[in-house]
């Protein structure tokens, strides 16, 4: 069973067309009241999809906020989700029967983090869910669900459980002298009560136990290291498939790269790069197969290292290259993209916003994809890029370190090894060095470049391996008794 809010924003409403109202209503004991939620249900591909319905989920924007920032009532919206998720297996007659109490709860980030707390504080003391287990998946530790301590009574937890979510900010992080720094931290509560913890890559599992990557929770996570595992995400290989992608103009495979690069080895140059030429035409660039095209796709914010790109562009564009950025977020960066495009019309394009078909065409048409993220729990764009024979150049952090093997032209008896470039430290100079190596390899060593493309395409990025590892974590979770205060 998948439990999710029924988000209605006028755009995604059709996603729920096949779901139906179960007629089941429950009152959620939280926020000093008992807000009522309903449940919609769709059975699809062997999965019960349950959508929790409440007016707070019906608004424009994304699940967490809009152009003005995060929604101010997110604590309320996700508190009622957690309560509803705990009740769903008990009250919903799906297919004529309820799931019952013998469940695993796989909860994602702070938004579902109250679930293990509710199991331990509200249900197990009364003999309900006494054998249930919970697993927390941390996708991004920077988001923790922190609110003022005065909001604790709204969460629907017993008064004597305050210590589980209590979080006090250090003096330097407080806004003024009278600020005591007292808060409730839902993710912290999940970390201390959940049965096992998973992050979305092995590298990130280690990073969050360090002072640099732990976002203040490193000591707690270090203490729970025995139940902490990293499992690298997979990708949807049906949506991201260069042999059948409906968004790209030419199809290709590891055995036939002609749709990507035309005639691959012809007098040590590409005779006609098909997807690349189509992208160059769409962006208004000169159609030049020998000119490397570098792309960036992602949110425009500090985490993604866009400030590093801004600093490096004047030097980078001194090379004979073309650069395209697709993304939205920080307004200053969006304006910089627009002005840089006007100043470097022959070499730079900034696509402000996000467009799924365009992201596919950039992934297929570029020669390289740049990801200078400060931290990256897993990252998916580098996985898409390798599947599309586009060589990633990434900062050596988190999931990027795990998934992109640094290129070594002298390994394997001179045949080369690696799928891209992973640079460190995170500096403009280090990034430019990696990009220059990539550009030189593209221009002068076509056989090595072909090896990079094919090794990237042959990497197994499916969910199959990840699923096996999750099943192992489920087995481990059953070896110990569930959390009891």
From TrEMBL:
Hydrolase in keyword set: no
Protein's GO biological process: amylopectin biosynthetic process; starch biosynthetic process
Pfam families, per database record: Glyco_transf_5 (PF08323), Glycos_transf_1 (PF00534)
Keyword Plastid annotated: yes
Pathway: Glycan biosynthesis; starch biosynthesis
Gene3D superfamilies from the UniProt entry: Glycogen Phosphorylase B
Molecular-function annotations in GO: alpha-1,4-glucan glucosyltransferase (ADP-glucose donor) activity
Catalytic activity: [(1->4)-alpha-D-glucosyl](n) + ADP-alpha-D-glucose = [(1->4)-alpha-D-glucosyl](n+1) + ADP + H(+)
Coiled coil: none
Domain Starch synthase catalytic, residue spans: 1-222
InterPro entries documented for this protein: Glyco_trans_1, GS/SS, Starch_synth_cat_dom
Main location: plastid
E.C. code: 2.4.1.-
Subcellular location, record wording: Plastid, Chloroplast; Plastid, Amyloplast
GO CC terms: amyloplast; chloroplast
SUPFAM superfamilies registered for this protein in UniProt: UDP-Glycosyltransferase/glycogen phosphorylase
Domain Glycosyl transferase family: start-end pairs: 287-431
UniProt entry keywords in alphabetical sequence: Amyloplast, Chloroplast, Glycosyltransferase, Plastid, Starch biosynthesis, Transferase, Transit peptide
Family annotation (HAMAP family): Glycogen_synth
Family stated for the protein in its record: Belongs to the glycosyltransferase 1 family. Bacterial/plant glycogen synthase subfamily.
PANTHER family per UniProt: ALPHA AMYLASE DOMAIN-CONTAINING PROTEIN, GRANULE-BOUND STARCH SYNTHASE 1, CHLOROPLASTIC/AMYLOPLASTIC
Name recorded for this polypeptide: Starch synthase, chloroplastic/amyloplastic
